[in-house]
Design brief:
α7 packs parallel to α8. β7 and β8 form a beta hairpin. The longest helix has 21 residues. The chain is built from 16 helices and 10 strands. The chain is globular and about 60 Å long. It is of the alpha/beta class and about 350 residues long.
Length: about 350
């Protein structure tokens, strides 16, 4: 029997791939847009929610990108950014997430004159506020920030330096995002080399819209510690007529070295990286024991939560509590916080709770 979203919501979970500007509450967007005069496609909460999901499902890249033009537009002042970060932490904790790394691109929030530092500090303050509010309601969450640079822009070194500067204040790592085709990660080698010299951790969006060359460059040229999505590693896996699975050199490298895959099932459907949940490569990758993690990507655009993603996978592949614990431990092992913190969450929160769920 598949597990329900509500049952999974009660279990502790870890999230590595979630975009701050892709997870706003529709009611908050409407309120902030009204305050700054930004025009929305709908000013009704349910209507706006539907518009975001429909736009993301449209198959049109232009319409999908339009969704972010609305969320980013209402995140251009310190008060708004801090509120959005606060609500993000509360919403994730309410979904049973005990550890999260949430990413955002500071450069996207400077249109009205904010400095990059203003944006980072507003987000970190919001996360701290939200985590405190969640803790007071009995739902503790540890939340860290990933600073994202846009791969089509030229500010990756600035953002990398910012990530290092704020790493003792809540920033746990660095990321690059944006269109993969035509914008290889090797364009930002100076930023990645700097991060490596500074003993800093980073993930790279790779292997979602573009295939194996993107993954290869992210790992072998740039030294990525994780792959944002990485779903297209399945292109290097084949099945022989007799049912035997064969891994290519890159797939073997990813599995052998335990490179974490930040898989986002519902989002992967929207971007065409998978045809359906039932046919999503996560089933094969989990079976082959890749370092698989389950993530949300953009909760607003996918109309989802981490509990919902796990429920969909449970229904499609028959995953049980043991499997969900495995996904959660994988995520925590792959997180960018220190080893002792990871171990404490796994041993003190995750394993005892799942042991009770498996015994029930």
């Amino acid at each position: 029997m598949s597990l329900t979203t509500e049952a999974i919501r009660q279990a502790p979970k870890a999230l590595l791939h979630d975009h701050l500007d892709g997870g706003l509450r529709p009611a908050t967007i409407i309120e902030l847009a009204d305050r700054n005069g930004h025009e929305l496609p709908s000013t009704d909460v349910s209507g706006l929610s539907k518009w975001f999901v429909d736009a993301a499902n449209s198959g049109s890249l232009e319409r999908y990108l339009e969704t972010f033009s609305h969320t980013v537009a209402v995140m251009q002042d310190v008060e708004a950014i801090r509120r959005v970060a606060h609500e993000c932490a509360v919403d994730l904790a309410d979904d049973g997430v005990v550890y999260a790394e949430v990413r955002f691109a500071p450069e996207l929030h400077t249109a009205e004159g904010l400095a990059l530092e203003d944006v980072v500090e507003a987000v970190l303050a919001g996360f701290e506020d939200g985590a405190a509010a969640a803790r007071s309601e009995g739902r503790p969450i540890r939340i860290g920030a990933l600073l994202t640079a846009m791969r089509h822009a030229a500010r990756s070194m600035e953002i990398a330096e910012l990530a290092v500067r704020y790493r003792q204040q809540g920033v746990v790592g660095f990321d690059i995002a944006g269109a993969e085709a035509g914008f290889p990660p090797t364009r930002h080698l100076d930023a990645f080399e700097y991060l490596q010299r500074e003993n800093s951790r980073f993930t790279i969006h790779a292997g979602e819209a573009f295939g194996l060359p993107s993954i290869w460059q992210a790992l072998q040229w740039c030294g990525a510690h994780r792959l944002g999505h990485g779903v297209r590693i399945v292109d290097d896996i084949s099945t022989t007529p007799d049912g035997h699975t064969e891994l290519g050199l890159l797939a073997n490298y990813v599995r052998d070295t335990r490179v974490p895959l930040e898989l986002c099932p519902s989002s992967n459907l929207q971007t065409g990286a998978a045809p359906s949940i039932a046919e999503h490569p996560i089933g094969l990758l989990a079976k082959l024991k890749f370092r698989v993690t389950v993530n949300t990507d953009n909760r607003l655009m996918s109309g989802t939560s981490l509990s919902r993603e796990m429920a969909l996978l449970s229904e499609a592949f028959g995953f049980d509590w043991k499997d969900l614990q495995w996904f959660t431990v994988n995520a925590l092992k792959s997180s960018f916080i220190h080893f002792d913190e990871r171990l404490a969450i796994i041993n003190d929160i995750v394993k005892p709770t799942y042991a009770k769920l498996m015994d029930a």
